[in-house]
Structures are given as C-alpha cells and as structure tokens.
Amino acid sequence: MADAGLIVLTAFISPFRAERELVRQMLPEGEFVEIFVDTPLEVAEARDVKGLYKKARSGQLKNFTGIDSPYEAPEKPEIRVNTVEMTPQEAAEFIVRKLMPLK
User: Fold this and answer.
1) SS3 44
2) Closest C-alpha among 73, 74, 78 to residue 31
C-alpha cells in the first residue's frame, strides 16, 4: 500500500529493536515513523481488562512481553506518547500534530 502512495498505519507488538530496525530499513528514508506508546509495566497490568498479565505471571502464558520475555524500548522514536500523562484523545491529537510537519 505504501508503494501505491497511501499512508499506512500499523500497530504491532514488536518488542525487539532489531525487528523494528529491519522494518525501517525496508522503507525509503523518512517513510518509517516509529511511535512509542510509552506505558510503564505496572500501568499496563492495571489496565489489563483481559487478564493476560495475570495469566502470564501465573505461568499460563509463556513468552509474554514484559513478564518472561524482554521488551527493548525504542532508543530514538520519532514520536513518544506518555500514556500516563495523556488521555487516549490527547494522545491521538498529539500524534496527529507531530505527524503533520513530517508530510
């Protein structure tokens, strides 16, 4: 879709820097914008309506990011969203404002 000139948004659980860098290298310079939705582990666990963190901590889910599988935070994301300080609406507006000058 990017080859067709469309703006493509994707959301992945991509816990390793090397994986994110691989995707960045697949696209032309400046076409990959990494948005780090920064949420401390304890906050993510408190917000977990599906109970996945509880299952991971009890051993029912293996290789769960942040529990028994590491998460490597981005070192230089183009955009960082602090979900502790922003509501979802504020975060969305912040991302749009940050993206506007990039295009």
Assistant:
1) helix
2) 78
Cα(41)–Cα(47) distance, integer angstroms: 10
**Contacts of residue 64, Cβ cutoff 8 Å, sequence gap at least 6:** 52, 53, 55, 56
Domains of the chain, start order: 17-102 (3.40.50.300)
Measured distance CA(67)–CA(75) in Å, rounded: 20
Tell which residue, 49, 94, 48, 89, has the closest CA to residue 67.
Answer: 48
Q: What tokens were used for 72? A: 């490597």
Residue-wise pLDDT tens digits, 56-70: 999 999 999 999 999
Q: In terms of Cα–Cα distance, which of 43, 39, 67 is closest to 55?
A: 67
Average pLDDT of the chain, as a whole number: 91
Known catalytic residues are 14
